């Protein structure tokens, strides 16, 4: 079933929407949550929470890119779950990704002046300026939390190419944010 038909089910408040969403995207959502939580049970709970949050928000929301909408819900749910579970300790994956991006993102003090949503919009605009391959690599690494090895295998390129692409894109992002006066 395509996204438009699934969306119609949500708007009709037909519970089949959840079943179809799970059938189409369940595996990808669970894998996303698992990469953050490293627990099958927690990933499954996060996946189910994603369906409930989508049910609660559609309508009035009508996402243009349905999987991206679901992935954002799933990722945020998994990150919140991880924070609750680990209170003071943060998982190595999240710390690693945070450290990678810390060189090009504004610090917390700078974010006080710029809403998080606005920063997300600026990064989205920036990503339109890089090549499709670099954009895919960046999103897979920092939004979907995929490992460098997984990105390499999925895209059929070397790990060193993935690493250099991420390095170059982070530096371009840093320059872009500097020009936007966010750094």
Can you walk me through this structure?
The chain has 183 residues and is mainly alpha-helical. The protein has 2 domains: 3-86, Rna Polymerase Sigma Factor, Chain: A (Orthogonal Bundle); 92-179, Orthogonal Bundle (Arc Repressor Mutant, subunit A), CATH 1.10.10. The chain is built from 10 helices and no strands. It has helices at residues 3-11, 16-37, 40-57, 66-86, 92-102, 108-111, 116-127, 132-142, 148-155, 159-179. α1 packs across α2 and α9 (148-155) crosses α10. The longest helix is centred in the first third of the chain and has 22 residues, at 16-37. The radius of gyration is 17 Å and the shape is globular. The termini are far apart.
Order of helices and strands: HHHHHHHHHH
Give the strand content: under 5%
CATH homologous superfamily title of the largest domain: Winged helix-like DNA-binding domain superfamily/Winged helix DNA-binding domain
Number of helices: 10
N→C terminal distance: 44 Å
Average of pLDDT = 84
CATH level 1 class label of the largest domain: Mainly Alpha
Could you please say which CATH topology of the largest domain applies here? Arc Repressor Mutant, subunit A
Number of strands: 0
Overall CATH architecture of the largest domain? Orthogonal Bundle
Query: Judging from the principal axes of the Cα atoms, what is the shape?
Result: globular
The main sheet comes to: none
Low-confidence runs (pLDDT<50, min 5 residues)? Answer: 109-114
Percent helix range: over 70%
């Amino acid at each position: 079933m395509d996204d438009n038909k699934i969306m119609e089910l949500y708007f009709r408040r037909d519970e089949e929407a959840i079943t179809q969403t799970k059938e189409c995207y369940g595996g990808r959502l669970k894998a996303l949550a698992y990469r953050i939580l490293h627990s099958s049970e927690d990933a499954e709970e996060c996946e189910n929470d994603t369906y409930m949050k989508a049910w609660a928000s559609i309508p009035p929301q009508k996402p243009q890119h349905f999987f991206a909408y679901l992935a954002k819900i799933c990722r945020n749910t998994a990150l919140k779950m991880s924070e609750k579970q680990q209170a003071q300790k943060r998982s190595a994956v999240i710390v690693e990704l945070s450290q990678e991006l810390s060189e090009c993102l504004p610090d917390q003090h700078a974010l006080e002046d710029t809403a998080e949503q606005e920063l997300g919009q600026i990064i989205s605009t920036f990503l339109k300026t890089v090549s499709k391959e670099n954009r895919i690599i960046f999103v897979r690494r920092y939004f979907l939390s995929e490992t460098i090895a997984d990105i390499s295998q999925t895209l059929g390129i070397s790990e060193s190419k993935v690493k250099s692409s991420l390095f170059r894109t982070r530096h371009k992002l840093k320059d872009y944010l500097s020009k936007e006066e966010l750094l």
